[in-house]
Design a protein that fits this description.
The structure holds 2 protein chains of 2 kinds.
Chain A (H helix, E strand, L loop, with lengths): L4 H11 L13 E4 L24 E6 L6 H4 L6 E8 L5 E11 L3 E6 L9 E2 L7 E7 L5 E12 L6 E8 L17 H4 L3 E5 L19 E5 L2 E4 L21 E5 L11 E7 L14 E3 L7 E5 L2 E7 L6 E3 L23 E8 L6 E8 L2 H5 L10 E3 L4 E3 L1 H4 L3 E5 L4 E2 L2 E2 L2 E3 L1
Parallel strand pairs in A: 4-10, 5-9, 17-22, 18-21
Antiparallel strand pairs in A: 1-4, 2-3, 2-14, 3-4, 3-8, 5-10, 6-8, 7-8, 7-11, 8-9, 11-12, 13-14, 13-23, 15-26, 16-17, 16-19, 18-22, 19-20, 23-26, 24-25
Chain B lengths: L1 H16 L15 H10 L3 E8 L2 E7 L3 E8 L4 E8 L5 H4 L4 H10 L9 E4 L4 E7 L2 E7 L15
Classes of the chains: A mainly beta, B alpha+beta.
Keywords (chain A): Signal
Protein name (chain A): DUF3443 domain-containing protein
InterPro entries (chain A): DUF3443
């Protein structure tokens, strides 16, 4: 998609100079030090748009220093963080960057090939096997691999022991739905995913009693069969397990010009109203459905289920006469209006209130992809059935993600607020 | 837009229906109403509801991982399948005789990373996936089999 990767990488590096500690720039930076999170993490030495160095703040770069050049070269609007993983109970830790920040999923998943500096053990499944998981996404892609116990460090917070998914397409015998699972960071476009959406567990109650839940498997030898998984063994949203700052996150990204930018730098703040740097102001809380995390978007006279997803790289919604699918060869997934379209929708809580108008713009994906930029606030594509507010929605906004069942000054989760 | 969409598919349908006729007795998309029960059994699902919407009937059944709705025309042919849940179901079963051409078209569809929806189109079937963790969604329909007067916007 890009023809000027080298030049752009240099440009990105120049723009973010001074925005990354040495320990955060690679995937193989094993450190042996404290597990308190002050060693080897990206927080503390990172200049974010908020200028804070608080322990509950992680740097986020959209196609910046926290995104690997080898996987981000053809993938626009990718928000990345780094996360530190430690061998449980030890000070042997590794910081992994190029982790996709994803408000559309729940749980930490990292490719086994990116976890070379730590030693993790598998989580046992009921019945004597080991637990593995098949996770599918909206684009039909999937991740497969064992569930393992790790000490996880977010920013400067204390490490917390929890299950994570170690992505490994070659592990055991995957179910049919994971037989074409992504085999490498290059295939996926990232080293891992940090799912910080509205739920505390990736599956929840639906996987506690039902074996055919479509997500969890028990493996003995190379044989894997569907299994139920108790809550404590499911892959959790790591934020929900923090001792403090565990009721949600705030995603803060800067405004980007309509025609794009090479990269953008922002922050992920842990907790909502839990300390002085995350007290909400001037935002509206939109309650989300407790089973789907969705709220409502009315656009062009039709109301759709909708969600806010940093892991989607565009604004995806049904094509209409207002903006139709691109007819340029190779661009049918996108919108490419001849002139930038100013559009409007109304978002509402899942029960219809409160509601508020959202103005947004859709530009030509052809023009964007032929530019040297990697961050585009006006990128969109046609999707039937729903409204996916992807990364462009987050540019220039502070978005509050309230975890199910937790309270904050904004109310009780699950909710989106901005 | 609804009208232009319907018009496009109607024309497409005329062209394709002469080439791809559903064979009676096959499961799922393109199959008979009786195949809905076979699909339900294959997915270990239980029947939830039957809804009649004018020119067609929707049979809904639910497994532990997803809810599936099959659209059956008045003439007894499954012309669309819709799903949502924790997992995209194994489409080999739900697409029936269209499964092979879907897989072939899927192999021809370039992966676009970051794009969180997928559309795969072959001569006889359109398959779309979207959604997010805990509510993955999708639909498949055979344009040639959609009854006259039914728009694809109704398939949801």
């Amino acid at each position: 998609m890009k023809s000027s990767n080298v030049g752009m990488t240099l440009l990105v590096m120049a723009l973010v100079a001074g925005c990354g500690s040495g320990g955060s720039s690679g995937t193989g930076s094993t450190t042996t030090g404290t597990t308190s999170g002050t060693t080897g993490t990206s927080t503390g030495t990172t200049g974010t748009t908020t200028g804070t160095t608080a322990s509950n703040v992680l740097a986020v770069t959209v196609n910046g220093s926290l995104c690997s050049g080898s996987t981000s070269g053809s993938y626009v609007n990718k928000p990345c963080v780094s996360v530190t993983i430690c061998t449980p109970g030890t000070s042997t830790c590794q910081t992994v960057s190029d982790i996709l920040l994803d408000t559309g999923s729940y749980g930490l998943r990292i490719f086994s090939t990116a976890l070379t500096g730590v030693s993790l053990t598998q989580v046992a499944s009921a019945g004597g096997g080991s637990l593995a998981e098949c996770v599918q996404f909206g684009d039909g892609s999937a991740l497969w691999g064992p569930v393992m116990t790790a000490d996880v460090v977010l920013g400067g917070e204390s490490s917390v022991q929890m299950p994570i998914q170690v992505i490994n397409a070659g592990f055991g015998s995957p179910p049919q739905t994971c037989r074409s699972a992504d085999a490498s960071p290059t295939a996926a476009g990232f080293n891992g995913i940090l799912g910080v959406g509205l739920f505390a567990r990736d599956c929840g109650a639906g996987c506690v009693d039902a074996a055919d839940n479509g997500m969890y498997y028990s493996c003995s030898g190379s044989s894997c069969t569907a299994t139920a998984a108790e809550l404590a063994k499911q892959v959790p949203n790591p934020v929900a397990l923090l001792p403090l700052d565990n009721n949600g996150v705030i995603v803060q990204l800067p405004t980007v010009a309509t025609n794009g930018a090479a990269s953008a730098a922002g922050s992920l703040t842990l907790g909502i109203g839990t300390r002085s740097n995350n007290i909400p102001s001037s935002v509206t809380t939109y309650p989300a459905d407790a089973s789907t995390a969705e709220f409502l978007t009315t656009y062009n006279g039709t109301t759709y289920a909708s969600f806010l997803d940093t892991g989607s790289n565009g604004l995806y919604f049904p094509a209409t006469s207002l903006v139709s699918a691109c007819t340029v060869s190779g661009y049918s997934a996108w919108f490419c209006p001849a002139t930038t379209k100013s559009l409007s929708a109304v978002n509402a809580g899942y029960n219809g209130s409160p509601f508020g108008t959202i103005d947004f713009t859709i530009g030509s994906a052809v023009t964007m992809f032929n530019s040297s930029y990697m961050v585009f606030p006006a990128l969109g594509g046609a999707m039937s059935g729903g409204f996916d507010w992807g990364l462009p929605f987050f540019l220039g906004r502070n978005v509050y993600v309230g975890i199910d069942g937790t309270g904050s000054p904004l109310g009780t989760g699950p909710y989106w607020a901005y | 837009m609804k009208h232009s969409t319907r018009g496009r598919w109607a024309c497409f349908g005329v062209a394709v229906s002469m080439l791809v006729l559903p064979r009676l007795g096959e499961a799922a998309l393109g199959g008979t109403a009786a195949s809905v029960a076979a699909d339900r059994a294959a997915l270990a699902a239980v029947h939830r509801a039957t809804t009649t919407r004018g020119a067609y009937t929707v049979q809904e059944f639910r497994s532990d991982s997803s809810t599936v709705r099959e659209y059956v025309s008045a003439s007894g042919v499954v012309f669309a399948v819709v799903w949502n849940g924790r997992a995209h179901p194994d489409l080999t079963t739900l697409l029936g005789s269209y499964s092979g051409e879907y897989r072939a078209a899927l192999r021809q569809t370039a992966r676009t990373r970051g794009l969180r929806r997928q559309q795969v189109q072959s001569d006889g079937v359109v398959v779309e996936k979207w959604g997010h963790m805990r509510n993955l969604q999708g639909r498949a329909y055979a344009p040639a089999l959609i009854p006259t007067g039914v728009t694809i916007d109704e398939i949801k």
